[in-house]
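Let us practice reading a record.
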Amino acid sequence: MLLLLNKQKMTFEEILHYRRSVRHYKDLAIDTDKVKHCIALATLAPNSSNLQLWEFYHVTNPEILEKLAVACLGQQAATTAQQMVVFVTRQDLHRKRAKEMLTLETENVLKNSPKERQEKRIKTWKMYYGKVIPFLYMRFLGILGILRKIMVNLIGLFRAITYQVSENDVRVVVHKTCALAAQTFMLAMANEKYDTCPMEGFDSRKVKNILDLPFGAEINMVISCGIREENGVWGDRMRVPFEEVYHCI
């Protein structure tokens, strides 16, 4: 089956079946430009409010790879990796991204909306990206999150509203967004017949120091990359019965 896949282009379903978490890679170099292209494809992943609060650190330097392997607790998926990509969240950039999105949406309105609706729609975007997003994404020792929770609980007495507005709730949203990009990257890599392993077992302080990340950055995931050894996948894939997780309402 794998031999067949290596000779022809895979369908999306075949890509999903091909992608596995690989724990041991061959000592074979992989194309840096192809990996970079897969990272570029990852930026097409859906994300909350299109803020794109993420950064991707493509590590090819052998010395940095060695340091990251130590920070990843010496996992074989890290020690045998040919390259790594570190997915980083940047919630601290929310004001900058919101400003960029306001400019984009204003241009979209002027380009695509009827003139009689433009003023109202631009006003809506100014409220959302100029007021709502900064208020929702600001952090200050959890205090702002408490104030937001009190506010939405009061409003929720009268209409439907999102209740996940604490500082930790918003942090979860930012990490979910970044994880969507990470999954998109891994599928893009599988399409290139390259293998990956998403690692959550790592010393985040060491990784931040190694990459010289700013204070507001957080590590979402470290993904090792390479070409699988024959024993690189640990056994057959297991999933709980579909009937246990599927609910049609």
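A brief commentary: The CA atoms of residues 54 and 178 lie 6 Å apart.
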